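Quiz preparation item.
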């Protein structure tokens, strides 16, 4: 299961709208325990794909290391990644699968049609190695903001 606040959920979707017709991408920082990836921070990343940014994304290794360090300074780990699919379903592609390497992480995809965020789905990359990895549909639990809650 992927748990995140309503504000983070909305931020992922807004990012996809802002970068349309190109794919957006980012990193999810938080904590993972007992089969739950709980997101505390979503960090926008630059899409370094210049050849086909409308249907591919890539996060520069230096940026990924910087984001990972920022997370560790706050006691957080990388628990997932997100990106958008402009004018395509919120379903992983063969390329998404081939380029997914962080076992145990959530991969969140938002379909953005005509510049408007539509469906958002999450997929858990499970397995023990590259040889047996697979994507499993993952439930997204969006926690509403409650006034007066700390």
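Solution:
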């Amino acid at each position: 299961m992927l748990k995140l606040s309503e504000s983070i959920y909305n931020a992922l979707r807004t990012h996809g709208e802002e970068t349309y017709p190109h794919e957006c991408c980012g990193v999810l920082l938080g904590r993972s325990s007992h089969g739950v990836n709980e997101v505390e921070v979503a960090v926008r990343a630059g899409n370094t794909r210049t050849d086909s940014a409308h249907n591919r994304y890539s996060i520069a290794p230096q940026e990924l290391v910087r984001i990972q360090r920022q997370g560790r300074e706050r006691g957080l780990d990388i628990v997932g990644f997100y990106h958008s699919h402009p004018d395509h379903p919120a379903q992983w592609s063969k390329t998404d699968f081939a380029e997914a390497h962080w076992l145990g992480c959530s991969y969140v995809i938002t379909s953005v049609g005509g510049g408007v965020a539509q469906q958002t789905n999450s997929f858990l990359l499970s397995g023990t190695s590259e040889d047996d990895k697979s994507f499993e549909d993952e439930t997204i639990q969006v926690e509403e903001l409650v006034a007066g809650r700390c």
